[in-house]
Specification:
It contains 13 helices and two strands, in the order ααααααββααααααα. The protein is an all-alpha fold. The chain has one domain. Strands 1-2 form a two-stranded antiparallel ribbon.
């Protein structure tokens, strides 16, 4: 396969989708996924869109890379350096103010593997599972990317296998069997489907026609509802995320297909909403930093501004959202610059 050339409209669409998906994560962690149960939790089906976007961006970059091993090294370092910096600075701040060094060898080993437990976290970081999963996806996808340069059908095979695995979870509880040394390997084996689907889309954009995407969206919804009915599963999405099953996965694919089917409309609307678009593009540019930092900002706002349990107070909810998003965006900029300097030093060696 030759180098993938991404059109300007597709590049803009990817950036907008990434920015929107990151804001959705922040709002969900602010508690908005719990205010109108069970329907509000349906927004969690948008999370795999981040894996979709990551796969699309990674594969297009992979095809342009002359040194594939350097690409892998850079991709992994780009992923781990920002989280290492934030966690180290958090522990250092705690030490400065309390004179207690809470870091340990056990904690160090867990953080290096992006698989910490609550007792080694300087602040609640519930989305660390996403970082752990994404790191594994980068490793797993590397040989798949390489061999797919000649045989693109490999993507389709792996996507189908990941879907079948998620469906099997509904009936056989496979997930617990794939926890190896406290590492949940079930998630990357399922989410690799979304990651490769993004790679498949970016390499064949013209094949994803609007009508086909709408039909695929409806088919995914029907299958998801059917799986839900035959399994008598919980309707709450939170009960399906740790071991993502067919009910959750098919609704998530439906969401991705819906985004693709409405790509032209999304771009048209945002082309005419200048300030909203500029904000989404900014969030997309610093998406990873915002993704990491927003949990810390939520913790600080709740701890020092006493903005816990504010769902019954409209003004407090809005204030909390504004503070967390604004602070996350502000601090994501220096985090990105510092991470880039550390990345340059690391790769130079």
């Amino acid at each position: 396969m030759s180098e993938i050339v991404v059109s300007n409209s597709d590049r803009v669409f990817i950036n907008r989708l990434r920015g929107f998906s990151i804001l959705r994560v922040v709002l969900a962690h602010l508690g908005l996924a719990w205010i109108f149960l069970p329907y509000s939790q349906m927004i969690s089906t948008m999370l795999p869109s981040l894996f979709f976007v990551s796969g699309a961006v990674s594969f297009s970059s992979f095809t342009r890379a002359n040194d594939k091993l350097y690409f892998l090294k850079r991709r992994l370092m780009t992923l781990v350096i920002p989280i290492y910096l934030v966690v180290f600075l958090a522990f250092l701040t705690i030490f400065v103010f309390t004179q207690q060094w809470l870091f340990s060898l056990d904690g160090l080993s867990r953080w290096l593997l992006l698989n910490p437990r609550k007792y080694v976290m300087p602040f609640p970081l519930g989305q660390v599972w996403f970082l752990h999963t994404l790191a594994l996806l980068v490793l797993i996808s590397f040989p798949l990317f390489y061999f797919s340069l000649k045989k693109k059908v490999l993507f389709n095979c792996v996507i189908v296998c990941s879907i079948l695995l998620s469906v099997s979870q509904i009936f056989y509880e496979i997930g617990p069997m794939l926890i190896i040394h406290e590492h949940n390997l079930f998630k990357p084996l399922v989410f690799i489907g979304f990651y490769l689907f993004g790679a498949l889309w970016i390499s064949n954009v013209k094949d994803f026609e609007v009508n086909k995407c709408f039909i695929a969206c409806l088919v995914c919804i029907v299958i998801s509802v059917g799986l839900f009915l035959v399994s008598d599963a919980s309707i709450l999405m939170a009960d399906h995320v740790y071991f993502p099953d067919g009910y959750y996965v098919f609704l998530s694919y439906a969401m991705v297909f819906l985004f693709l089917a409405t790509k032209i409309q999304i771009n048209y609307i945002l082309d005419h909403l200048y300030w909203l678009d500029r904000f989404l593009i900014f969030v997309s540019k610093y998406a990873y930093g915002i993704f990491i930092l927003h949990s810390l900002m939520i913790y600080l706002v709740e701890e020092y501004l006493d903005l816990r349990g504010v769902f019954n107070t409209g003004f407090a909810i809005v204030l909390k959202i504004i503070i967390v998003i604004t602070a996350s965006c502000i601090f994501a900029v220096p985090l990105s610059k510092l991470s880039n300097k550390c990345l340059a030093i690391t790769l130079r060696k």
